[in-house]
Amino acid sequence: MIWPLDIIILTIVIICGIAAISIKDLLGAAIMFGAYSFMMCLLWSVMGAVDVAFTEASVGAGVSTVFFVAAVFRTTRRTRD
Amino acid sequence: MRALGLATVFCFGAILFYISFDFPGWGDENSPASRHVSPYYIEHTMDDTSVPNIVTAILADYRGYDTLFETAVIFSAGLACFFLLRIPERQAPPARFYRHLATGITFRIEKGGRLPEDTDEFERIDSVWVPYDVIIGMTCRLVVPFIQLFALYVIAHGHHSPGGGFQGGVIFGAAIILFAISNNLRRTLKRMSEKTSALLGSLGVLIYAGTGILCMVLGAGFLNYSALASLLGVDPVSARSHGILIVEIGVGIAVTAVMVWIYYNLSSAGRQDEGL
After folding, report:
1. ipTM for this model
2. Interface test with A, best of B73, B159, B171, B271 (most A CBs within 10 A)
3. DSSP labels for chain A?
4. A66 vs B: CB within 8 A
5. Where in chain A are the domains?
6. Res B92: pLDDT
7. How would residue B137 be classed by pLDDT, with cut points 50, 70 and 90?
8. Which residue among B163, B267, B269 sits closest to A54, beta carbon to beta carbon?
9. pTM value?
């Protein structure tokens, strides 16, 4: 495990997580979740769990982002709160 | 209310942070998992199952029950989306839009008008704004077979490299979803109907559970693939490797079908007529 890389990725994970819940645009929140999943995927592969990283990349960053976008497409794009 | 929520979050966050100090360090050779759990699998997997990728062997063989019920959970997720979202009655929308392919002119046909359903000259388009996207449609159509080939590789090569039924199935489903996004939902439904995806989803779970029951019929425990040795004509160790492959194919079929099924219901709000 490379410590500087680890800290950079963890920082981006936290930024993505906070952005995903605080952003007003729901489509932006969906994309933020995708970025979050991709950073988690990088984190798994840095730790050596390649199978988990592969699952995270395909399920978390790929298909679930599409599902979020499809759900946003059928609702309003802006949150009220 | 907001302050209360923040206080709760920080309280539980602090507790979790405090507990995390008790965890063993990353890669600590004195942690319980590294002392007697991991060494067993690292030493015995190759002799027991002849599968080089230990993760796949644990997932589909040593812990086969977990994976069986994970597949069942994914199938239930597809069923839940179906029951929550699907609207069975087909009410005709107030107006439909058609594009004349030769000229690119868009027609709006009011309710009760004559619809050009069965000609090649007109193409039905969604009522929300749809760009005339020949390049996107053709490019995605070219890319889809390669993505599907990669998905099959991921499923078949899960014994030797990262991958397996779940990842390969998701990638295969993503290829079909890409086709649906780049073209339209109706064209995708013509190629893979809702009935097909539902049947394939249950078929995948059936392959997994059926392999387990077949092992029981042949005189071993549920999901003990070494019983398949007489049926496949190989030694019991290779039979476990082949059994993993059969099960992974079942998982792949189930996950592919369920991903596509969920997408159909989500993107069209259950109407399966006009969608993303």
Report:
1. 0.89
2. B171
3. --HHHHHHHHHHHHHHHHHHHH-SBHHHHHHHHHHHHHHHHHHHHHHT-HHHHHHIIIIIIIIHHHHHHHHHHTS-SB---
4. yes
5. 3-73
6. 64
7. confident
8. B163
9. 0.88
